[in-house]
Write a structure and sequence with these properties.
Strand content: 5-15%
Radius of gyration: 14 Å
Distance between the termini: 27 Å
Largest sheet: 4 strands, parallel
Bound molecules: 4-nitrophenyl phosphate
Order of helices and strands: EHEHHEHEH
């Protein structure tokens, strides 16, 4: 994590491998924050519930999908979620129900309220989960990023409590 003020809002995105969906969410959310001029108010990170890809950059297909929308995620490196994350972050967003269940276990009763499914924040989709594009094709990454961009915009609206169409 980079430096942020003491009162920063700390937001963590979590998927399984931290090489496809959560780096896309980190990049999309960071851009939304910066476009609103709120960069100094946020600490943004991503992690994976699994440990297979530790230290790896985002999947090349995820990097390309992000780059097509002007988002650079090439510098990110995969890491695994920890119990310390559950205390350190204020908002912890899971990409799917399996991540959500893992995170709730890790968070325990004290921090469980911070853990939500990312797509809960956006009623523009009926989906509860961001489909895992890892075994898919380029178009699956585009679809994942469509959902992620809509939901991260809505999440930012929710966190900043501005009136908006998403909860
Ligand atoms: P992600 O995608 O959870 O969106 O990063 C995956 C990446 C790797 C694996 C599964 C999902 N894997 O099984 O290695």
């Amino acid at each position: 994590m980079s430096q942020a003020p003491m009162n920063a809002r700390r937001v963590l995105f979590v998927c399984l491998g931290n090489i496809c969906r959560s780096p896309l969410a980190e990049g999309a959310f960071r851009r939304a924050v910066e476009m609103r001029g709120l960069g100094a108010d946020f600490e943004i990170d991503s992690a994976g519930s699994g440990d297979w890809h530790l230290g790896a950059p985002p999947d090349a297909r995820a990097q390309r999908a992000a780059a097509r929308r002007g988002i650079d995620i090439s510098g990110l490196r995969a890491r695994q979620t920890s119990a310390a994350d559950m205390a350190a972050f204020d908002h912890i967003l899971a990409m799917d129900r399996a991540n959500h269940a893992d995170l709730r276990r890790l968070a325990g009763a004290r921090h469980a309220h911070k853990v939500r499914l990312l797509l809960e924040h956006c009623p523009q989709t009926e989906l509860a989960e961001v489909p895992d594009p890892y075994y898919g094709e380029e178009g699956d990454f585009e679809h994942a990023l469509d959902l992620i961009e809509a939901a991260t915009d809505a999440l930012l609206t929710h966190i900043t409590a501005a009136p908006g169409k998403c909860k």
